[in-house]
Amino acid sequence: MRRSRRFSIPILAATALWAALTVQPAHGQGPRPQRVAAGEVSMTPGTSNGAALAALRSWNTNVTAMTNAGQLRSIRRESDPIVAGHRHEHLTQFHRGVRVFGGEMVRQTNFFGQVVSIFGSYYPNINIDVAPAVPAAIAPKVLASAGHGTVVPGTAAELTVLPLDDGTYRLTWSARVANGGEMTRVFVDATTGQEVFSYNDTWAQNGLHGAVGSGTGVAGDPLKMQSQVGNGTFLAVDLNRPGQNTTYDMKGSFQRTNTILATRAPAQSDIASDADNKWGDTGVIAVQTYAGYTYDYYKQVHNRSGIDGKDLKLRLLVNPALPTDAAHPPAGSTSTYYENAAYYSNGYMVFGVGRISGQVSTKNWGGAIDIVAHEITHGVTEFSSDLIYLNESGALNESFSDMMGTAVEFRSQPLGVGPAKSDWLHGEDIYPQFGPANRSMSDPHSLGDPDHYSVRLITSGDSGGVHTNSSISNHMFYLAINGGVNRVSGLAVQGVGFANRVLIERAIFRAFTVLMPANSTFSTCRAATIQAARDLYGNGSPAETALTQAWNAVGVF
Fold this sequence. Notes:
Layout: E1 34-39, H1 49-68, E2 72-79, E3 87-95, E4 98-109, E5 115-122, H2 139-147, E6 150-151, E7 158-163, E8 169-179, E9 182-189, E10 195-200, E11 203-204, E12 209-216, E13 222-230, E14 233-235, E15 246-249, H3 254-263, E16 273-274, E17 278-279, H4 282-302, E18 315-318, E19 341-343, E20 348-351, E21 355-357, E22 359-362, H5 369-382, H6 391-412, E23 425-426, E24 439-440, H7 462-482, E25 484-485, E26 492-493, H8 501-515, H9 522-537, H10 542-553
Parallel strand pairs: 4-7, 12-17, 15-18, 18-20
Antiparallel strand pairs: 1-5, 2-3, 3-4, 4-5, 6-8, 7-8, 8-9, 9-10, 11-19, 12-13, 13-14, 14-16, 19-20, 21-22, 23-24, 25-26
Helix pairs in contact: 4-5, 5-6, 6-7, 6-8, 7-10, 8-9, 9-10
């Protein structure tokens, strides 16, 4: 959700290039990557299919040459989960054996081994030494000190080439650092140990047997949740789904919440429990139930088993603080624990308790199904495209969570206006009186968000406006399904129709999970979603037409 952040943004967004092209950085600009978004058929107006195919073949030759030279490394190859015979190769850029932050490619091949599409970015003309003066043994301590916390358990300090906004590259050590309820990606100079760059990497929203518990959700909806029986009480553990997703009740203790996020070691006693399986805590039953609905959506619609495709357990933390403290969070607490929700990597997420200051400002943030599905989708992103939480790739990260969160809502709740009804608003169920919302997909402008690329927010705050600019692609999603006219461009879109929305949902899911690299721009996303529709439904399908028109309408080419 929307929140404020204070830091500069060094990674420069660039438009897609359709043939190999080296661009030298201008004074005051960061190193400008080569962008590639190439397919067998043209994805942009004015480009012939023959030129598009020639560009694809040229890029394939270049990518193969760079791989042979060690400038790109094949990190993983995976079979396509939907289109039989297709495979996806994920490549990362290296300079003298050191990974380059933001340099990635994804190459798709068909049953015959022929290249179908390539999406990605590559930084040219790197020429720096890669021997660190700060040894690997002490790098975690240096990073922890710079980030005022601890390196996230299960991760390691990584030697990284970082493109900077002065047009140079810097050899750095990098890692995610946990400090209370915040996660920060920190880069320190590998020669001096001084911090070079950091950004907020908290992906925020602003002998047992199973049993079925019941209760009422935050939005007033009657719910049934999966639980387990143990030691004479009922526990919020979902035994009916392979990952056994678990909800933990922090009982208003931000100190305990901080400890769990820093150590990733929750105790059995932290699991939410109830004596008779008729749950009175609306936040607990809402989060546990909605997480189950989200799992079912991904499995039944996209054939994905959990966020990592391997049924990784979700660890859902609720009641992380006291809502009465929201106006003045105590030292050591964080605003994320109140009017926000956030994903903390590897299946951990926190749902804010809301705010009580004289009157209720917002209710428990786990009380909206689209917020719960939004945070869980951040986990899907982490284990697929892993979109960098900055600038346009960060806005796309947020937008994918919004789009899938809305898809889960439409699948799980009846259409209508009011609490626990499905609509094109995001997060509306956490407000005491129905009406406000965090974002609108049908009319972003009504809530002060951009609905066209020309009016995007250009800022160094909020990781480059990730929670604001996400509304551009959100509106594209709405138009591709429902059709309509964009307010700014005046262009009309012939959508696939609400009853056929799964056609767009599947194309979006495919693009974001198997086709897009981590440093994708809006332009890359346009090309990838169009390619995904072609892969699924063939050239010229209603879904491809709707997506193409929708991207045109919001000004992304």
